[in-house]
Amino acid sequence: VTASTFSSVEQIVAAITAVREHPVLLLTDFDGTLCEFKDAPDAVILSPPRRLALSALAARPTWSVGIVSGRRAADVRQRAGLRGSAYYAGLHGMEIDGPDKQFQVPDLGALHDEIQRLGNALADATASFPGALLENKDLSVALHVRAASPRDRQHAERSFWTLARPMIEAGTLRLQRGECVFELLPNIAWDKGDAVRWIEADTRHRHGAAAFPIYLGDDRTDEHAFDAVGDRGLTVVVGSRPSRAQYRLPDPAAIERLLTRLATPHAPH
Questions:
Q1: How many beta carbons lie within 10 A of that of residue 121, not counting itself?
Q2: Is 29 a catalytic residue?
Q3: C-beta of residue 223 within 8 angstroms of C-beta of residue 243
Q4: Residues 94 and 200 in one domain
Q5: Which of the 8 DSSP states describes residue 52?
Q6: Does 97 map to a domain?
Q7: Interatomic CA distance for residues 263 and 257, integer angstroms
Q8: Cα distances (Å, whole numbers) of residue 214 to 63, 226, 229, 233
Q9: Where do the DSSP E strands lie in the chain?
Q10: Is the residue at 2 inside a domain?
Q11: Residue 267 binned pLDDT confidence (cut-offs 50, 70, 90)
Q12: Which of 147, 155, 201, 229 is deepest in the core (most CB within 10 A)?
């Protein structure tokens, strides 16, 4: 069942309360889900109420918490600032920093030098378009066009595509489209759904039992994670775009209400 209308926070809390006997694995996207989008990715940081709620949930003995992001794992860890142990999956799940185990897809760094050369060329090619921002993540490059005018966005995207096309057509890199962002990643068959499955397996090993998975996300890249969770757990999409998630909330402020409600003493443990 997918959500076509907005759900209430209480609906979602009730569904989670129904599985209070099970360990819980709560995974969430960062930008657009935990945090409101900003024109500059560097300006985004997790607000104190959301940080406190997630930290409280992570401290529960039967709960595991993680953030799955397109950012680098170290970057999202710093911006989240959670207390206690948590999972941080970066580059759309291709690198995972867990409480006591790390993971990186094989050969992730093999294209580092080529990506850097391409990133430098893309930065030069898009620099003259106001509002277009080229983000270098070391192992990927992303063009953000949220703040660009329609005309500058069109020109920046055309320049981006002209330079990127040879490596995409050669199968070296793949293009990943997000919310007002175009990202070039190593063409490795791994996505947020694979990251969810890896984290699930690790929590099963750590706790000796399968956890009830919950995934919160807003981006089309989160659909892989929603599919990985399926009917075994609970999925929430943020925003109004079509999605295969079971529940729907309007914005990160509603996610804050959900997390705060879950973290209160009378919520499910």
A1: 15
A2: yes
A3: yes
A4: yes
A5: H
A6: yes
A7: 10
A8: 11, 9, 7, 6
A9: 24-28, 63-68, 87-90, 95-97, 102-104, 133-136, 141-144, 173-178, 181-186, 212-217, 234-238, 247-249
A10: no
A11: low
A12: 229
Q: pLDDT, tens digit, for every residue of 46-91?
A: 999 999 999 999 999 999 999 999 999 999 999 999 998 999 999 9
- Residue 59 CA, distance from chain mean position: 21
Q: What is the CATH number of the domain that holds 82?
A: 3.40.50.1000
| Of 216, 268, 220, nearest in space to 238 by CA | 216
Sort strands 24-28 and 63-68 into parallel, antiparallel or unpaired: parallel
pTM equals 0.93
State whether 13 and 100 are in the same domain: yes
Residue 236, domain extent: 9-105+190-263
Q: What is the pLDDT of residues 222-239, one digit of tens each?
A: 999 999 999 999 999 999
Distance of alpha carbon 161 from alpha carbon 242, whole angstroms: 26
Secondary structure class of 124 (helix, strand, coil): helix
The domain total for the chain is 2
